[in-house]
């Protein structure tokens, strides 16, 4: 069984949209959002995947979600069929932290690729969990987003040295750092040097859930990326659809 997030009670969050971030920005894709996360970012825009009633980990909105309304369990076969009902040739698996469900996810992706062998599959991960041995060879791209100090997560939980080293060696891995203020840049530079992250695989992205905030932060962050040899990514889906589920 796979545990998915929902767009509304009982409706799994599987949808067609444009990829909004990173190296695939603007590409038509089918998305599947899984529930549960091992971290708790203060600014997380999908807190409905982990901050359920009784979870008091800090979040800026201080909203708790009812688990029964925001999670749905599906068989691997049903999840694969739902993905295949969408025509796109790219699958983006997001969360939450998808790699927490690696074994079940491997079975889903195997079923999907059996029907659509050329499907490009990418996983969005916080970088703390290794891909399951049966899942790893099925994945074309990992979008790795390590969480900086401003996320509110303890470094020993969010920045696991051996995992960051492994991702940096994997040519399928693209790093995406969420930036709120200019003070975050020194932390990114230190992580890049410590783990030998290639500049052409390192994206910086403004934190924000509104076009106004993203534009304001993009003005100076784009210049910093240019000067440091990093890549810059916006959040296209926020500009197009706002901060909404299923987009």
TrEMBL record:
SUPFAM superfamilies: Radical SAM enzymes. Keywords: 4Fe-4S, Iron, Iron-sulfur, Lyase, Magnesium, Metal-binding, Queuosine biosynthesis, S-adenosyl-L-methionine. It holds the Pfam family Radical_SAM. Residues 1-22 are annotated as: Disordered. It is an enzyme of class 4 (lyase). Mg(2+) binds at residue 46. Pathway: Purine metabolism; 7-cyano-7-deazaguanine biosynthesis. [4Fe-4S] cluster binds at residues 37, 41, 44. Transmembrane segments: none annotated. Its cofactor is Mg(2+); S-adenosyl-L-methionine; [4Fe-4S] cluster. Its EC number is 4.3.99.3. Substrate binds at residues 18-20, 33, 94. PROSITE patterns: RADICAL_SAM (PS51918). It catalyses: 6-carboxy-5,6,7,8-tetrahydropterin + H(+) = 7-carboxy-7-carbaguanine + NH4(+). Binds 1 S-adenosyl-L-methionine per subunit. Binds 1 [4Fe-4S] cluster. The cluster is coordinated with 3 cysteines and an exchangeable S-adenosyl-L-methionine. GO terms for molecular function: 4 iron, 4 sulfur cluster binding; carbon-nitrogen lyase activity; magnesium ion binding; S-adenosyl-L-methionine binding. One of its GO terms (biological process) is tRNA queuosine(34) biosynthetic process. S-adenosyl-L-methionine binds at residues 43-45, 96, 145-147. It comes from the Bacteria. Residues 24-243 form the Radical SAM core domain. Coiled coil: none annotated. Homodimer. HAMAP family: QueE. Belongs to the radical SAM superfamily. 7-carboxy-7-deazaguanine synthase family. Catalyzes the complex heterocyclic radical-mediated conversion of 6-carboxy-5,6,7,8-tetrahydropterin (CPH4) to 7-carboxy-7-deazaguanine (CDG), a step common to the biosynthetic pathways of all 7-deazapurine-containing compounds. This is 7-carboxy-7-deazaguanine synthase.
């Amino acid at each position: 069984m796979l545990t998915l997030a929902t767009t509304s009670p009982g409706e799994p969050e599987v949808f067609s949209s444009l990829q909004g971030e990173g190296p695939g920005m603007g590409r038509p894709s089918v998305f599947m959002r899984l529930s549960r996360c091992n971290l708790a970012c203060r600014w997380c825009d999908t807190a409905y995947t982990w901050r359920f009633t009784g979870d008091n980990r800090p979040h800026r909105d201080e909203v708790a979600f009812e688990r029964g309304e925001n999670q749905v369990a599906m068989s691997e076969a049903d999840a694969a069929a739902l993905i295949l009902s969408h025509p796109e040739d790219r699958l983006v698996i997001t969360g939450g932290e998808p790699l927490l469900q690696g074994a079940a996810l491997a079975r889903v992706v195997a079923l999907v690729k059996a029907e659509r062998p050329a499907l490009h599959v990418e996983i969005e991960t916080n970088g703390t969990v290794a891909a399951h041995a049966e899942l790893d060879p099925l994945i074309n791209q990992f979008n790795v987003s390590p969480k900086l100090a401003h996320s509110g997560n303890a470094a020993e939980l969010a920045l696991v040295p051996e995992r960051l080293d492994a991702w940096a060696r994997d040519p399928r891995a693209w790093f995406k750092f969420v930036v709120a203020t200019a003070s975050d840049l020194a932390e990114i530079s230190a992580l890049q040097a410590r783990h030998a992250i290639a500049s052409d695989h390192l994206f910086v992205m403004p934190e924000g859930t509104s076009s106004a905030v993203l534009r304001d932060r993009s003005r100076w962050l784009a210049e910093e990326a240019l000067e440091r040899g990093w890549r810059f990514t916006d959040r296209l889906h926020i500009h197009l659809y706002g901060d909404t589920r299923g987009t």
